[in-house]
Amino acid sequence: MNLPVPFFVGLRYTRARRRNHFVSFISAISILGITVGVWALITVLSVMNGFERELRGRILSVASHVTVSAQQDWLLDWKVLDRAVRLEPGVLDAAPYVLGQGLVTRGNAVSGVLFRGIEPELESGVSEVLSRLIAGNAAGLRSGGWNIVLGSQLARSLGARVGDRVTLVAPKGKITPAGLLPRMKRFTVSGIFEMDMYEYDSSLALIHLDDAARVLETQGGVSGLRLVVDDVYAAPRISAGLRQRLGKSVRVSNWTIEHANFFSALKIERRVMFVILLLIITVAAFNIVSTLVMVVTDKRADVAILRTLGLAPLGVMGIFIVQGVVIGFGGTIVGGVAGVLTAINIETLVPWIENLLGIEFFPASVYVISDFPAELRWPDVMTISVVSFVICLLATLYPAWRASRADPAEALRYE
Question: What domain range is 335 assigned to?
Answer without folding.
Answer: 5-58+262-412
